[in-house]
Amino acid sequence: MNSSSPINVLIVEDDGLVLMLLEDMAQELGYQLVGPVCRLEDALRLALSRDIDAALLDINLSGALVYPLADLLREQGTPFIFSTGYDERVLPARFQGSPLLQKPFSLETLRQSLACLKLAAKAGRDLPDAVPAPPPKLNS
């Protein structure tokens, strides 16, 4: 990958509002979007047919778990981050320690997560286990 070429990010998300936020932010930050898609079958098809540098994956896509796609991306050497409202205990053993973006997330946390994806994609390697944690929730 040329260092000046845009990063092709596959976005897999089934919540329309979250999807719009992800699309807007990713485009604003200069990422080239692949998809986005909201169904596992469509995401698998894209992962097999398109040039994808990195991916942001919602874990639960209307009842279908995204793990087969994560397995495929891992085999291809494509870095990814899971995006979910659940905590890391929902991850199967093979994905324990994988980067996780907790919903709801702030725009800054998303920005940092996408920056981690970009660095990993440019370096052609997996992401570090730690993705910036979201700020603590404040009780009012």
Structure description:
- The protein is of the alpha/beta class and 140 residues long.
- The chain is built from four helices and seven strands.
- The chain has helices at residues 16-28, 40-49, 67-76, 107-123; strands spanning 8-12, 32-37, 54-58, 60-61, 64-65, 80-84, 100-102.
- The chain has a five-stranded parallel beta sheet, sandwiched between helices.
- The protein is globular.
- The chain starts with 7 loop residues before the first strand and ends in a 17-residue tail after the last helix.
- Mean pLDDT is 84; it is low at 128-140.
The level of helicity is 25-40%
In CATH terms, what is the fold-level topology? Answer: Rossmann fold
Distance between the termini: 47 Å
Based on DSSP secondary structure assignment, what is the total number of beta strands? Answer: 7
Unreliable stretches (pLDDT < 50, length at least 5) are: 128-140
Question: Based on helices, strands and strand pairing, what is the structural class?
Answer: alpha/beta
- Overall outline: globular
How much of the sequence lies in strands comes to 15-25%
Radius of gyration: 14 Å
TL;DR?
The protein has helices at 16-28, 40-49, 67-76, 107-123, and strands at 8-12, 32-37, 54-58, 60-61, 64-65, 80-84, 100-102. By secondary structure, it is an alpha/beta fold.
Detail the topology: elements first, then pairings:
Blueprint: E1 8-12, H1 16-28, E2 32-37, H2 40-49, E3 54-58, E4 60-61, E5 64-65, H3 67-76, E6 80-84, E7 100-102, H4 107-123
Parallel strand pairs: 1-2, 1-3, 3-6, 6-7
Antiparallel strand pairs: 4-5
Helix pairs in contact: 2-3
